Each structure stands twice: as C-alpha cells, then as structure tokens.
Amino acid sequence: AAGQAPSATVRMTGPDGEALTATAEGNGPVDAVCKAVADVVGVHPKLDEYSVHSISGGLDAVGEVTVRLEHEEHLYSGRGSDTDILVASAKAYANALNRLLSMEGVAARQ
User: Fold this and answer.
1) What phi and psi values does residue 8 have, to the nearest 5 degrees?
2) For residue 30, which of 67, 70, 77 has the smallest C-alpha distance?
3) How much is the pLDDT for 110?
4) Does residue 89 surpass a pLDDT of 70?
5) Parallel, antiparallel, or unpaired for β 46-54 and 19-25?
6) Is the confidence at residue 107, as pLDDT, over 60?
7) At a CB cut-off of 8 Å and minimum separation 6, what does 59 contact?
8) CB 85 within 8 A of CB 31
C-alpha cells in the first residue's frame, strides 16, 4: 500500500542449529533485509558501503553484492551473490556480520 514502509522477514540458522527469525522495516527493501539480519544476529553496525554488480548476463543474471560494515571503529566486508538481489544482499550482510563476530569475539543475542 502507498505510504507503507518496506518490510522483510528473514530466517537464519544459529550456531547451535536453532532457527532464528526477525522482521524489520526499512527505507527500502534492501535496508529492511539488512536490518532484519542484524536483528537476528543481535549486532547493529553502521553500513559504510553497499555495491552491486552483475556477474552474469541475461534475464537470469546473477548479482553480486558487496557490503562494508563499521562497528566500533573497525571495518568488516562481506559478499553474497544470487539471482535475487535481496537474497544476495542478505548473504553479503550476514557474511560481513560473521566476520565481525569472529574477529571481535562478540557474543551476539545475549
């Protein structure tokens, strides 16, 4: 509907195999997906950079998303690819968050 904020629901598997779900709203569909992933993980870094490019051609082109996140004055990059740019965005954001968590030893979802 007009005037309604985009929202996204993501389901991820935690390190212990637990299914985790979050829904978030954003200023666009990619923002909503990234916020939902951050809600699942329990860490909310600043998005420093977002880029997308096509790594194949045609109607079923695969897009690769690269994100760079800033958290406590450190930068973490992640990449993801998929034919659905929202899925690729979620993969890239989750990849960067995984790097952040492993580098900082952050215990998420406490």
Assistant:
1) -140, 145
2) 67
3) 39
4) yes
5) unpaired
6) no
7) none
8) no
Q: Residue 25: enclosing H or E segment and its boundaries?
A: strand 19-25
Bridge partners, 102 (sequence order): none
Average confidence (pLDDT) over 84-100: 95
Q: Which two tokens stand for residue 40?
A: 């699942």
- CA distances 34 to 46, 56, 96, Å, are 11, 24, 11
pTM over 0.70: yes
pLDDT in tens, 15-50: 889 999 999 999 999 999 999 999 999 999 999 999
> Greatest CA span in the chain, whole angstroms?
44
Cα dihedral 104, 95, 74, 63 in deg (nearest 10): 180
Query: What does the radius of gyration of the chain's CA atoms come to, in whole angstroms?
Result: 14
Helix ranges (H only) for the chain are: 29-41, 85-104
